[in-house]
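your task:
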Amino acid sequence: MRLILSILAIAALASVPLWLSDPYLLNALITTGIFVIGAMSLNLLLGFTGQLSLGHIAFFGIGAYVSALTSLGFDVGLPFGIRIVHEPWSPLAGFVMAVLVSALCGYLVGRLSFRVRGAYFVIVTISFAEVVRLVALNWVELTQGPLALTNIPPMSVGLPGLGEFIFRTKLHNYYLVLGVAVACYLLIARLVRSHVGRAMRGLMENETLAVSIGIDVTKTLTLAAVVSAGICGAAGSLYAHYIKIIDPEVFAFINTVTMVIMVVAGGKGSLAGPVVGGLIFGLMPVALRPVMAPEAQWIAYGAALIVILFIMPRGIVPALTQWMPRLRRVRRPSFSKRGIEESA
């Protein structure tokens, strides 16, 4: 049943450009899809290991900058007279580098921060994001600082015998984002349903009991951080090559808050939760913009989140999953033995 629903959902999303001709709405779907990928990566930490990272946007920004710089090339000086000159590579190579560098940063942060818990872990992640933002802002020779990196080339893929395919249009980028999102969803699903995923859930439910049966806490959580950071870096790469301009504002704390809202409202710990929450809260500002002032939009945004969490404390997807069997039992007529005899 879940497989059928997943296939129908992918087919429905793939059909959107066939009947949606408004480029503004298609652009909103593309940017929402990119942040949904980021929310799925955050859900791997928050929903399946119970670790709240409020600096997750750092990996998004690292992926964006690494991919952009790999594609544009750079010439930067280092201490002791060392100079590094990098010639431009293909955007696909930039995408791969973004995933690898983000995953490496996730490993380093995980090895350092998973030795602490609770509020200490949150502080470490926020501090890491702020340090990365300051580096992007002040290392002007490499990142252009507040002037931003511009003229980032669009994503392109070399096809054997057919040359290079460039994702120029919104239609191309929509299917690119959808394809990457489906691949990330399948990767996360495969991970959380493996023995590693069961270890993650065990640590979230009862860490003391999990340790007593031989689960390596640091190793398991670090693996989750590496995969989560790599996926978030992939989202950042897609963002950079689609928007074609990147500046330190990509590290804004509001972007992390947006991802957390998508995960919590959709249902943390559920695979479809970040997708549902992301589509709702990613497209809500687009729906409210024609009828509300910016201040009122934020009020409506917060009110919708409060209502959802008041009615469905565990999130939308877990609540619907819990309600569906009850609805089927209510709709199914029940006949007692006495009632059958009387009707006969």
